[in-house]
């Protein structure tokens, strides 16, 4: 047994999830390698912190969903097996070794989950709090896209005036392929109307989604990938967007990206 496998078993032991065979192997390795005992102490302390140091609260749905998504993407034993593939023996591989690899997958998964849970617990213990974690996970798509754009080396922006008052700034990045419009003090529109976004490409308007706006600042992500030279426009349309797929009013905003 190498140290990596021992670390995987130590995580399982801390979570009381080892099979009887793995538990026997784990205890034998502890006797044979006392220099690895520090891993056991660290994982045991982590598990204890998870159960006792953090107040028992119901996690926000977003945190639970993020954890389940991590679980779903983690390799687990018995998954992704191609029944049409030749057996290990036919390929010249050692069946016993292949079986051991499959058996070790849940151990790696267990260690990954222990590390993930410890990270979340550390954030809560440091005062970040479940509410803040939930806010981060639940960021609106426009906010996430705006951060991606601003982090891109080719991020660009331009500001334009809105008809009937107010202003808006378009943010875009060709490498990210996204554009976000941040508006300030859009004009009031009727309840049966909405704002619609457009990419105007080579003179042809392409619908890019609708958005609602309350008073103040609003960020809206344009649907679809932008291309160099697009004009970003906003019109006022019937609720749900233009039924013809073409603007039915003159744009209240038009910002060139070239």
Automatic annotation (TrEMBL):
Q: Tell me which domain of life the UniProt entry assigns to the organism this sequence originates from.
A: Bacteria
Compartments reported by the entry: Cell membrane; Membrane
Q: What positions does the domain Anti-sigma K factor RskA C-terminal occupy?
A: 116-251
Q: Where is the composition biased (Polar residues)?
A: 74-86
Sorted alphabetically, the keyword list is:
Cell membrane, Membrane, Transcription, Transcription regulation, Transmembrane, Transmembrane helix
Q: What Gene3D superfamilies would the database entry show?
A: Anti-sigma factor, zinc-finger domain (1.10.10.1320)
Q: Where is this region: Disordered?
A: 74-104, 238-258
GO biological process, alphabetically ordered: regulation of translation
Q: Does the keyword Transcription regulation apply?
A: yes
Q: What is this protein called?
A: Regulator of SigK
Q: Please report the organism this UniProt entry assigns to the protein.
A: Microbacterium kyungheense
Q: What is the lineage of its organism?
A: Bacteria, Bacillati, Actinomycetota, Actinomycetes, Micrococcales
